[in-house]
Structure formats: structure tokens, C-alpha cells
Amino acid sequence: MIIIMKSHVADSEIAAVEKKLQAMGMGANVSRGIERTVIGAIGDERKMDKEALEALPGVENVVRVMKPYKIVSRESHAEDSIIDVRGIKIGGKTIQIIAGPCSVETQPQMDSAAQSVAAAGCRLMRGGAFKPRSSPYTFQGVGVEGLDMFQKAASKHKLPIVTELMDVRMLDTFLEHKVDVIQIGTRNMQNFDLLKEVGRIQTPVILKRGMSATISEWLMAAEYIAAGGNHNIIFCERGVRSFETYYRNMLDVTAIPVLKRETHLPVIIDPSHAGGKAWMVPALSRAAIAAGADGLLIEMHPTPAEAWCDADQALTPQELMTLMGELRGIAQVIGRDLG
Amino acid sequence: MIIIMKSHVADSEIAAVEKKLQAMGMGANVSRGIERTVIGAIGDERKMDKEALEALPGVENVVRVMKPYKIVSRESHAEDSIIDVRGIKIGGKTIQIIAGPCSVETQPQMDSAAQSVAAAGCRLMRGGAFKPRSSPYTFQGVGVEGLDMFQKAASKHKLPIVTELMDVRMLDTFLEHKVDVIQIGTRNMQNFDLLKEVGRIQTPVILKRGMSATISEWLMAAEYIAAGGNHNIIFCERGVRSFETYYRNMLDVTAIPVLKRETHLPVIIDPSHAGGKAWMVPALSRAAIAAGADGLLIEMHPTPAEAWCDADQALTPQELMTLMGELRGIAQVIGRDLG
Amino acid sequence: MIIIMKSHVADSEIAAVEKKLQAMGMGANVSRGIERTVIGAIGDERKMDKEALEALPGVENVVRVMKPYKIVSRESHAEDSIIDVRGIKIGGKTIQIIAGPCSVETQPQMDSAAQSVAAAGCRLMRGGAFKPRSSPYTFQGVGVEGLDMFQKAASKHKLPIVTELMDVRMLDTFLEHKVDVIQIGTRNMQNFDLLKEVGRIQTPVILKRGMSATISEWLMAAEYIAAGGNHNIIFCERGVRSFETYYRNMLDVTAIPVLKRETHLPVIIDPSHAGGKAWMVPALSRAAIAAGADGLLIEMHPTPAEAWCDADQALTPQELMTLMGELRGIAQVIGRDLG
Amino acid sequence: MIIIMKSHVADSEIAAVEKKLQAMGMGANVSRGIERTVIGAIGDERKMDKEALEALPGVENVVRVMKPYKIVSRESHAEDSIIDVRGIKIGGKTIQIIAGPCSVETQPQMDSAAQSVAAAGCRLMRGGAFKPRSSPYTFQGVGVEGLDMFQKAASKHKLPIVTELMDVRMLDTFLEHKVDVIQIGTRNMQNFDLLKEVGRIQTPVILKRGMSATISEWLMAAEYIAAGGNHNIIFCERGVRSFETYYRNMLDVTAIPVLKRETHLPVIIDPSHAGGKAWMVPALSRAAIAAGADGLLIEMHPTPAEAWCDADQALTPQELMTLMGELRGIAQVIGRDLG
Predict the structure, then answer these.
(1) What ipTM does the predicted assembly reach?
(2) Which residue of A254, A262, A326 is the best one to mutate when testing the C interface, meaning the one whose CB has the most C CBs within 10 A?
(3) Inter-residue contact D173 to D203 (CB < 8 Å)
């Protein structure tokens, strides 16, 4: 940590910073320049609050030198981590496309969806039994029985299932229903108690980025899970909030190369929630794969216009199949293949 | 709801919209213009997903006509609601300043803080026993025993206590410790299961705005609480995420007149988390009161530089006292008084 | 235009809206619903200010039905427009990569750069003689003589030149120096007098998106140029302002499919100014082409570390050549080729 | 400037940074820590591009130690600067309210407006003869003759006039018409050629903040004017772009205390363009004055509903008069008075 002092700083103010650092168990290296005095703090800054230093008189600014994240950082683990989901690898050379409906509706709907997911060549399936909805007056998901329908439909095609956990009290139920991958949604990225709980198990977790979370905050949210012992974490960018009103969220495609540099964990993209319209999904999907994503989380519905939620963003089975062909071509160009 | 069709729309597409509306239990009023055909949907649009209509071929855009929120809306309840916290009124003519430290640390710290809060003329006290921290490696709050310390310190001065609930499983503990006002933090504004639970009790709830929540989403989050039966809701604006890096969050002062127009519920401001620096707090506090806020949630610490978290944003007891004088003056100018 | 009235609207208020519309030369179609009265305005809404209607008592909201842009809209011209720059086509099946240094520095630097641009297979060259810099104390560009150096270097390889016009008073100089494509920078996207002037000539214009311009504002800025008679407009997305601090701007990759839907004009991407770091450029470039961009504007410098500005974002000649190979592969997958 | 090196840095990389600094005329102070090597650059960093250092291998991050702005900074001039506009002081103890219509329309409209501005107790008048409009198809201002109408109306009441300059070629005309204060609009904040030109004269300049300009970029834009010799600069915050759609722009009230700390120049607020609705203006105006603004720029129209632009945001003469009373009260509370 580097403490930059104000221009006309008193010796006593410098001494107070040194004393504070000492109390924090850190050493201090004072460098008196012509324009500014700068103090380098020596020791593990991860446990330190920079605010405690910024509160001292004469301090202009405090700059971190180390990354605040540790277990999830590329610095601590240079090789790419590969997450194994019942034999299917996420994060290696092979790109995985996870497809399925926004929400579990009925057994026939899930059966039909699973059939189309498998037919398109996807190896994992998504679907929500519990839905975070802006309005308390709209469909909230079919609940626990949705997990049954989902497993029944997916197991016929040996598709591991990915579904969202919103309430920490439902974790045991998720484990009983053998959910293969637990999704933590954008609204819960900093629900720290939930993160701590999924950190205690070994089920792979897809951690979606918060609505306006910085990449650093997102990595720190993952660090909460990792610090508990669960290192099976997959980052999922799903668009962030912006001033643009034409589409729902702004897909942050730059987050892909940035995360691949900062963390060893896999990175996937949800193009459906990003744009919010089915016609945008193919372009965003191709962009994500071309930029280096390890996979996609795509909404597909047997009959989109009849979907119980987000009807306008689901692909048809046919559209998914066509898209898979394009993605396969792009994967090849960059030396990868499709799952 | 108004459905705007694309410019060269087919009759069959118009018919399909009418049929879909019918299936949703709504009537349809088709208006064929020269440039565009527009369909008005007749009925209660609050339970409708506009996405289901936007997914239909030929639909350009769907515009809501009614507010999506109901119980919390000014339309449904014209008079200002006043929330009663052990005899102290929030939302009426009297402005309430809620002050106290960021986090509960020790009994002497809380005793000293409570003493200063009361001496400054504030009638409620804040303090966190559970802290949502970006890093798993920093101080996470003292936990349940913090509630004891808090109550002990506050009760000497008859100050009702305000503290944050992060984990739905702690609600009973909060009730046992007779927490007077439950704060739902910015990271949990759309933790819908938590909202539903605090909707089942009658304890007043301060609902902080999400990091980048629109005012409409915020009102809908409150509607989740209200729909459960708890109408004792206080909105708290605490700054939103922006591109500016000079300070922590951008205080959305415009949200004050907007909320006073849209809802009958009280609106308070947290100037400490907005700016993130103690020296910004007086200016932001005065602005909030001048703009019509019903109260403030301010951080004050007996010795800010020694605070265990957010040391740089707490006022000293003396600074709080001085600020109270200015706020009293402004309250008077706009026909109000200070609690 | 649709005028949505407040819930308890008076007949006189409805009549006043009708009268106002009449004064504006529009017809009115009043539709009295149970919850709301809605008035449809009949006529050309493009010349109308919706504010004039929103100012009337009893009006809740005014919604546009037509697109505010006309000449540049896909609605008015269904086919893709192809811009011809000395025989090189932008906007058709062939993707064009425009490369070159951030700024013109010296004749040898430009000669070397032109050589590398041509060797990589790019068919147009970029370079700035006038630079918009945040600080008045840093390098502002070499000025007019830079145009000479640029033309001299580029002409050896028959590369048309692309360079930024900042000051309306320099337009004649640009024409005298036979600048092939005039770039309007992000800070001047709404410099309406400059837009009007380049609208009077026929030189192709690259119109960069403003720092936080909505897609609609951007299309309207192009409409200023088009309304003057110059339809040779190329849109260039270069990243927008966001809350993320890891990189310089957030590349809005979704803008590509959106613009391809809304306008017939070509769309290119500047991955260098978006990320702001050379190591991000390949991933962003691949994403842009995969998403359907018609070209790229890339910074390349013979020796990046010695560049006079933006040294950290320029590719080396070798990196550009490698990237071109990848882009060629992706172009092929989506049925296009590289210029 | 502080150069933070990557964790496993080579000696040759450190040496290259030292060499680069030397070439830039700076000294270097290398500090080898356990986790990181940090290099302090010694000398005037204002003329340096940090990108030139960030481009070097082994460099993780470069942090500025000095403020990039100089003449406009509080560091260089501790006392508040007071701008004199024909005897009326902006920036001192007295707060100035500048009122008037969005645009100059007709002589009677301006006469009536001037009369109301003076009657309300305001001492300067605003009005636009040239209007920056998003659409080329809407009213663009009455042009030069508007300056005549404006002067004629204002001079009867000895009101200095404030009007926007969009085109650098109109500067002489503005000087001939004795415009008292030149306004640089939000879209031109980084029109550097325009800034340089108004830097060459002594007419006071109101510099509006760019749509999404950081405070630092805004201060640097002012530095462009100041570096030319014109130190008569007034900052005007007018709301910034955000994700919120309820109102037009988000008023950044925090910018007031921040600017008062960073610069000695006056700071005013435009509450009309911020919210975009007349009913929001009183609350925002009171907030701005309470937060420490030196003045306001308010839209008032004799008959708002008939205004030729921004009809929904203008106050009536009566509303302005009422507001002035409230502002006077708040000014008094914070030890100031109204002009």
C-alpha cells in the first residue's frame, strides 16, 4: 500500500501514519519528494482497510499495490482451472454451451426443451425453478417440484442441470435434488451469507456478475466462496447496467480478456440476459466465443412466444442449432472446439 | 399497456396480439394510424409481462400505462404515511436524524457513541452488528453480541436502534433483541426472499436503494415488503454507482422529490455512504434536507480515526452537533422542524 | 406520438392537449380507458417537441411512435449502403481494417507505419495530425504538416487516409490535402456546427460515438450530416463511459447488431480506444468482427513504447499481422471476407 | 508519479523504466519491497503521459501523485476567486441567481421575461440565441438577431446577459454584441479549439460539465481556458448521464463540495437541465444552495407551455419569485446572502 501525503504535510502527520501502520503490523518506508511525501506500507495489505489510513490528517490518497483477491487470482495459480461437472469439463480447450428455458414450467415443456438442447449438441442444461422477479405480482417460479421436473427431463439425455439458488434456506433441498451446478444470480452476487454457504460445499457454482459490480468486486465475491473451500467457481458475465435504453443490459465483452488475465477460473457469458432480445443473441454469442469465453448460458424454449417469462429473449430449437454451427466454426479459428 | 406495431404490419400479426391479450384476460383496442398501428390493452396490466407481447411478430414496442407498484404508490394513498418507531414519528413535519457508528465495536465505544447521539439531539441510533464487506479477509462485524451491546448503550438514552439484517436466518434473533428498525442494505435490495420475510412482520424497515437500482425497481422492492402486509417502510437513498471516481457513490438528490411524488412513504438519505468522506457529509446533509428528505442516516464515531470500518466517513461528535444546528435552520426555512 | 394522461384527468385538460396538437398541425385520437385516457397524435412527429406536450397539465407521459431519424434509418432504405473510398468499399461483404498510429510524428515513423499497414493486408490507414488531449500541457499533434507527411507515406502504398477533424475552420485545409475519410471524434459527436459543415461536402465521414451517447442520439448526429446532403457516413463505436475502472471504456458490442438493424450505413469498431491496452485489442477485434462489424479502426505503431501518445494501446506490426489472420478466419465463418 | 511493477519483475525491466524517466527529464527513486518493486518519478509530472510508462514491460500500474490541473487548482490559489460581471460578483459571499428562458423567441417574450427576472430579484439573465438540438429537424434558435433582442430586453433592467456559444466562428459576433458571459455547453466541454479561443479573451465563461465528464476532466477543460490567459471561469454542474430514466439527468450535488475543495473558481448549478421538469426545480435549487453553490442558472418563461423549447422545465415568473424567497432563507442559514 502506498500512502500519498498532501503537499504541505507536517512531520507529526507523517509520524502518525507510521504509528498507525505499526499498530496494523506493517512496516513503513518514507520517501520525501519535492512535491509530495510518499509512504510505502510493508506487509500483507489484504487484511487492511485503506479507509483507516485515509482518515488520518495529511493523507491525500492511499493506493493498493497488491490485488485484494488471492485464491481466485491468476497470480496465485498460473494454470487455467478446469471445473469438472459429472465428467464434462468447463474451462479447458473445449467450449461448453449451456442451454435451456428461462423457467421450468411443465414436464412436457422440460422434456421437449431437454430433447432440443441435446439435439443441438449442448452438454449441460439450464432452467429456473425459483425466479427473481422485479414484481411480486408476476410468476415467481414453480418451486421445488420444478427441480424434479428438471432432473427427470435432463436425465434422459444425461444432461447435468444448472439452476439458480436464491434463498440460503433452500441449499439442502438443492443438494437433495442433486443440482449439478448452482447458479448465484446477479442480484445475489454480494449476498455474502449465501456465498459463504456455497463455499462450504463442493458443488460447482456459476457466479453471475452483479448489475453494476466492478470486476474487482466480482473477483472478491468469488473469493468469499473460495475462502470457504469451494474452488469450483465459474464466472458469468450477463451484461451490466448502463445509460443505453435500446437493450436491457450492456454486455461487457472486455471483461472476458480481463478475467482470463486476472483469474485462473473459467468465464462464461449469458447473451440472453445481456441483450434481452432473441435477435441479438447470435451476434453476442459469436462475439463472446471470439473474445475467448469458455462457454455460454443461453435461453432456448420449445415455443418462445408461450414462455412464462422472458418470452422475447429465448431462441427456438432451430435457432440454437444454427448458432451452434457458427460457434463451432469460430472455436476452430481460435484453436478450440465445442463441447 | 400500449402495443406499438412495426410500420408494415400484417393483419394476422395484429390478430395474434389481440388473441394473446385475450388469453391474458385483457381487452384490446386497435387504432390503425397512417404510420403505425397501435393497440391499447384494457385491464390490470400489473400482472402482465410485457415481454410476452414483445415476443410476438410485428410488435415494435410495448409501453406500460400504469405504474407497476400499487400499495406503496401515492396514487393509491394520497396522504403522507408516518411511521411510528416507539413514539418517534418518521415521515411527518418533523425531520429525524439517525446517527451512530458504522459498526458496533465494544461496549465503551457504543456507550460513548449513544451519549453523543443523544447530546446532539438525535432521537434514533444506528450501528451495524453484521457488516457486508467486499473482502472476506476484513472485519465482518461482531455479530449477535453486538446487538446486546447496542441495546444496552441505546436504552440508557431511550434511543430506538436501527441495524442491518443481511441473513434471513437471523430474523428471529433480531426480533428477540427487539431491534426497532431493520435496515435492508443496498446489496440486498433485490434479495426477494429476505424482503418477503420482513414483509411478514410489523417492524419498520429501512430499505436502502440498490447500487444501481432505478427508482422504479426500488419501489417494486418495497412493494414486495408491502404485499406481505408490512407497510412500515422507509426509503433510504445512499448514493448510486457512477463513472465518477473522486468519491464513492453519486448521491441522487433528485430521487427525493421524485419519491415524494411517487410514494406516500418516508424518504431518508445516507450522506455518509454516498460521498464516503466525512468532509462531504455536512454539504450533502444540508442538500438532502433542503430537497425535502424526511431524515438522515449519518455515521458518527467517538474517535473516527480509530473506527473498525469506514474510518474516513464518520463525523466526530462535535461535527454532528454543529451540523444539527445548520439542519435545524434549513428545516425551519421550508416549514419543518428537527426531531 | 402517444400522450398518456394522468389517472384523474379533467375534460378541459384533454381538450387542451387536442388544441395544442391542432396548433402543431397534428390530429388527435382520444381513447378513454378505465384506468387512463390515452391520446394518439396523428401526423409527422419528427418536427415535434414532446416537451411542449409534457408541459401541459394532466399529461403523465408522452411516447414517440416513430423513429426520430429518417435518412439514416433502415426503414427509409432497406438495403445496406456501401461507402466507396477511392475504390475501396466499406459496408459490403468485405470487411475493412483501417490501421495506423495514434498520431503522426515524423516522416520516417509514418513511412514505416504505412509499410507495415500495407504488409499486413490493410487497405486504409489512420493517423492523427490534430489530437484532442485532456491536458493543455501535453502533445497536441503536429498540425498541418502532419497531413503532408501522412499523404506522402500513405500514397506510396495507395492507402487512402483517415484523419480527425476537430476544428471547423480546418475543413478547407483537409480538402486541399485530399483527406480521404474525415473522422469526427467522440468529443465532437454533438458539435452540431461541425456536423453541418461535413454534411455540405461528399467526403466520407467516420462518426465516432460520443462518450455516453445513446444509440438514438448517435443516429440523430448522423442525421445532421445526412440532412445536409452527405450520406457517406460510417458509424464507429469506440467504447463508452462506465463505472468499471479496470479499462478505459466499455466496448458496446451490442451496438453492432442494433445499428445493423436500425441503419443501412456501415458500422466499424475502434478496439484500441475502447480497452485502452494493446493486450485487449485482439480479443475485442475478434469479438467485433464475429458480431457483424463492417470494419475496424486499429492503432499500430512501428515501436509502440516510443509512441508520442497512447503508447500502451498500439499493436506492433507483427501483432497486427497475426491478428489479421484470425480475423480472416472469423470473417469466413460468417460468410464474409477481409479487405 | 509512482510506477508499480509486476510481482516478478526483471532487473532489466526496472532499468528500462529508469531510462525512460531519464529521457523524459525525470529522476527515479527505486524501492524494492517484498511483494512489489515501486519506482517514484521525481519532477513535473504534468507534461508526462503515463501511457508511455504503462507501455513498458513489467509495469503493472502508474499512479499520478500531483493534480493534473494547475492554474484552476485550489493548491495554486488558496483564496476564492470572485468573477466580476459588470459590477456583479460571482463567487463571493453573495449567491447569484441567473434566470431567463431556454431560448430567445421574440422581442415581446424577451421583454416580458426580463421584466420578471428583474422583479424576482435576479441580477443576471440567461437566454439562448443558438440552440444545440438533438434533432436537425427541430427549432435551432433564432440566431444573431436573437442577441439583439436579448440585449434590448435585458438592458432596460441593467441585467448582464449570459448566452451559449457553439461555433468558434461566432465569437467575434458575440463580442460585438457585448455578450457579458459566454456559456460553453455540455456538448462542447471538450471542444478544445473553442476552449482555446475563449481563453484568449477576458469575457467571463460559464463552463458546463460534459454529459459524463469526470470532475478531473472538467477541471482540465477549464485549464485549457485558463492556460490561454482567461481566468474568469465559472463551473456549472447540470446533471450527468446515468442509468435512471425517471428524469433527464442526475444532478451531481456532491460535485459542489468537491469543486469548492479542488478549485478557487465559482461553482453554479443548472437545476432545470438536470431534472428536466419544472416541478423538480425548487427542490434541486434549494439543495444546490444548501450544499454551497455560488449561484444557479434557472429557466423561467413568461408562459412555459408556449415555450419554443424545453417547455416542461421552465418555471413561471410566480414560481421563480416564490423560490427566491426560499433560497434567501437557506443562504442566510449558511452565512451567505442572495444577489
Answers:
(1) 0.95
(2) A254
(3) no
